[in-house]
Design a protein that fits this description.
8% of the residues lie in helices and 36% in strands. By secondary structure, the protein is mainly beta. It starts with 13 loop residues before the first helix and ends in a 20-residue tail after the last strand.
Length: 578
């Protein structure tokens, strides 16, 4: 059953509007008793900020970089009023929040809503259902995510313990980037000429670049700790275009949660984390009293220029008052920037907790198969144009050779009100032509994609298997792919071409990791499974922002089930107009 309604409903009178509003607050999961509701006020505004001896007006929420932390409990209802005080349109996405039936609150521009315009407000309302752990929120239009982002922490329900030793302290650690220029201008330049974007000027840890950059003696995050304690680090990669290695000198970690889903404890001395991914890691302060360096630098698979620098911060053990003890800085060892072996081992070692309280419900019988070839492309340069991609072309990207074109009306609105001409429902379930996806491609071959706004229709409650296949078009590269509205089980991954006859034999159908952002290995594939139990319009895209700009994205239209409890809720009355 589709969730379309007749367009005339949009024009119904005031009485019908009031009735629908009453039904919304009767049925919506986002209208609970006040005692279970958390309220937040976000003001999108400019703030004068200086890093690397460069001052600029930085786009922020509430004047903070990174933005304010949202902290709620599982089962809470969340209400966030976002007011836009700048000329640019904006939206906010609650990255990893399932948004059961409340797709209107998901946030990606022109997918589930039109943007919030200058001087306007929009109130996001949703419930934290069956989720707990570390997530993030960020702007979801142009490249505003560079500075408009923050931590989103979901504690267990009141009285419910963690399924791991209770930490003494908790610390959010947000990894990001600093741009001396305007990131939106960098994106606009790339769109205009079809070339690769300029790279960031620094990486950051909690908004600070650290001691290895010029003019940054005072621009270094310092976390003071007590010896002999256990700290829960809530690690978030909010960078635009870089996967990152992260370590703290002489300290080991235990990963206990990833992307808001508990994991079996995994001990390591270094984390590899892609943009959009989040983790909770335990760390014991069991080392001699001194200062230790946190460090983050990129994991790289692309052949284009990238930021080769390293962000640092300080972990400082507290010393007695009036102590003259010197605190030397100890530096961590990080993997080499192109250490794919380490990145692969880290990703493939994670396992879901799969306990009695938190079972793994991996779909066993599949009734909806999808095979998506994920590609970078090269478009022929249009006549009378200047193009700065390879061989005089324009860079683009695609899934099954479809390069996504954002509409002018939000897809969810078009589907809900049955507005024609906004999208088509014929996204291909396989590439139009099968080929050796990971074999070298000659520059003389046609690498043009089709530009379209197509969506893939999935029946409600279908058990879906999605194979994401990396390709060699324009070179090999890892693609951290984010799926809105769902967590997905990563049942397998490998290098080369996926083989449907042999590779399923190695699938982990017992305790695979449950993620919302999945790294498709460079020159390889990832196999995902999920139940389509959340009706709505859900965006899927590479979380390397430049790839999304080039068109590496698409949307799933998950149909309504039977009855109101399996249907998309009505849109809120303050939904921004298109």
């Amino acid at each position: 059953m589709a969730f379309f309604v007749n367009r005339k409903l949009f024009l119904c009178g005031w009485a019908a509007f009031v009735l629908s509003l009453l039904l919304l607050f009767r049925d919506a999961q986002c209208a609970p008793p006040r005692r279970n509701t958390k309220y937040f006020d976000f003001h999108v505004q400019y703030q004068n900020t200086t890093r690397l001896c460069q001052s600029k007006t930085l786009l922020t929420v509430n004047g903070q970089f990174p933005g304010p932390t949202i902290a709620v409990n599982e089962g809470d209802n969340v209400i966030v009023k976002v007011t836009n005080h700048v000329k640019q349109n904006t939206t906010i996405h609650w990255h990893g929040v399932r948004q059961f039936r409340t797709g209107w609150a998901d946030g990606p521009a022109y997918i589930t809503q039109c943007p919030i315009q200058e001087g306007q407000s929009y109130t996001y309302r949703f419930k934290m259902s069956e989720q707990r752990g570390t997530l993030l929120w960020h702007a979801h239009i142009t490249w505003q995510r560079a500075s408009v982002h923050g931590a989103f922490i979901i504690y267990p329900k009141q009285g419910v313990p963690y399924p791991f030793p209770k930490p003494d302290f908790e610390v959010p650690i947000l990894l990001g980037e600093w741009w001396n220029g305007d990131p939106d201008a960098v994106e606009a330049e790339s769109v205009r000429f079809g070339g690769g974007p300029n790279v960031s000027d620094a990486y950051t840890i909690n908004g600070q670049p650290g001691l290895l950059y010029p003019c940054s003696d005072k621009d270094t995050f310092v976390q003071r700790v007590d010896a002999g304690k256990t700290y829960l680090l809530r690690l978030i990669n909010a960078a635009l275009n870089d996967e990152l290695f992260f370590a703290i000198a002489n300290h080991n970690f235990t990963v206990v949660e990833a992307d808001g889903c508990y994991t079996k404890p995994y001990s390591t001395d270094c984390i590899m984390i892609a943009p959009g991914q989040t983790m909770s890691i335990l760390m014991k302060t069991d080392q001699p009293v001194r200062r230790y360096t946190m460090a983050a630098r990129p994991y790289v698979t692309a052949s284009v220029p990238f930021d080769e620098t390293t962000a640092t911060a300080i972990l400082e053990y507290k010393v007695p008052a009036n102590s003259s003890l010197q605190l030397p800085i100890m530096l961590p060892d990080l993997p080499a920037m192109r250490d794919t072996d380490y990145a692969t081992k880290f990703a493939t070692t994670l396992r879901s907790l799969n306990s009695r309280e938190y079972p793994s419900n991996v779909p066993q019988k599949i009734d909806h198969h999808l095979f998506f070839a994920v590609s970078l492309n090269l478009q022929d340069c249009p006549a009378n144009s200047i193009c700065k991609g390879y061989f005089g072309g324009r860079f683009s990207a695609s899934i099954n050779n479809q390069s996504f074109v954002h509409p002018k009306t939000a897809l969810l609105q078009a589907a809900y009100y049955n507005i024609s001409g906004v999208f088509s429902k014929d996204f291909p379930s396989r590439p139009p032509h099968e080929y050796n996806y990971t074999a070298p491609i000659s520059a003389a071959q046609n690498m043009n994609p089709n530009f379209s706004t197509r969506v893939a229709v999935i029946p409600y409650n279908a058990n879906v298997e999605l194979i994401l296949q990396g390709t060699s078009i324009m070179g090999f590269e890892n693609h951290p792919t984010h799926i809105h509205g769902f967590n997905v089980y990563v049942v397998g991954q490998g290098f080369g071409n996926y083989d449907p006859n042999t590779d399923p034999a190695s699938f982990n159908l017992i305790d695979p990791p449950l993620r919302n952002t999945v790294g498709v290995p460079t020159a390889g594939w990832a196999a995902l499974r999920f139940k389509a139990d959340n009706p709505g319009m859900w965006y899927m895209h590479c979380h390397l922002e430049i790839h999304t700009t080039w068109g590496l994205s698409m949307a799933f239209l998950v149909e309504n089930g039977t009855g109101p409890a399996q249907s998309v809720l009505p849109p809120p009355p303050d939904l921004p107009p298109c």
